[in-house]
């Protein structure tokens, strides 16, 4: 297999990036700080907060109040908690600018629905150490730049930018328009790891822990890459698979074969 599809869903709460209470959340949104999600308790009368979140295109998640009770460090959330990003997101242009400044062919990692913050952090760390120019994550149904992601990235967020795509399918189309080839990682690959032409402008796409690549993402890929396996445990997790593909891309670019 290309990587293991772990179906365990991680908790959404995370220390260091939670903002509680109506006024605090409202002012955070108005200030333009990067916010991944706003959690609202069912029946809470905070329509102004929800409206402001939607104005900034921030997903609003309605949930049982007990979920917010479990997330809240203070117990005084007033029915609303915002999960802010641990680091500001970058634009797609920023990622291409980094490649241009280094005079390098673009190497980008795309995460198609990674939900585990430790996996995302490890992918970001591998991307930075392999010399990738940026990481792309979707806005919905995926973990954002939480404090746990920042810890798992072990400082890599200071050196590699992360772009949050409003619509991942449209972003993949834009990458193609800019001359980037899309390489999805899956067990039933159309090309083996050592035959994939990573020397061209490349986006390595890693699917979610539960489902792998989404159907739409897979259909957009130019190549589906499989990792050869010889052991009895025929799988890697998402972050391990990303590291294998990234360092093969690095080897190809530095050795030229």
Automatic annotation (TrEMBL):
Single GO term (MF): RNA binding
Any one GO CC term of the record: cytosol
Record-level GO BP terms: methylation; RNA processing
Keyword flag Nuclease: no
Keyword Iron among UniProt keywords: no
Family recorded in the similarity comment: Belongs to the class IV-like SAM-binding methyltransferase superfamily. RNA methyltransferase TrmH family.
Matching PANTHER family: 23S RRNA (GUANOSINE-2'-O-)-METHYLTRANSFERASE RLMB
Name of protein: 23S rRNA (Guanosine(2251)-2'-O)-methyltransferase RlmB
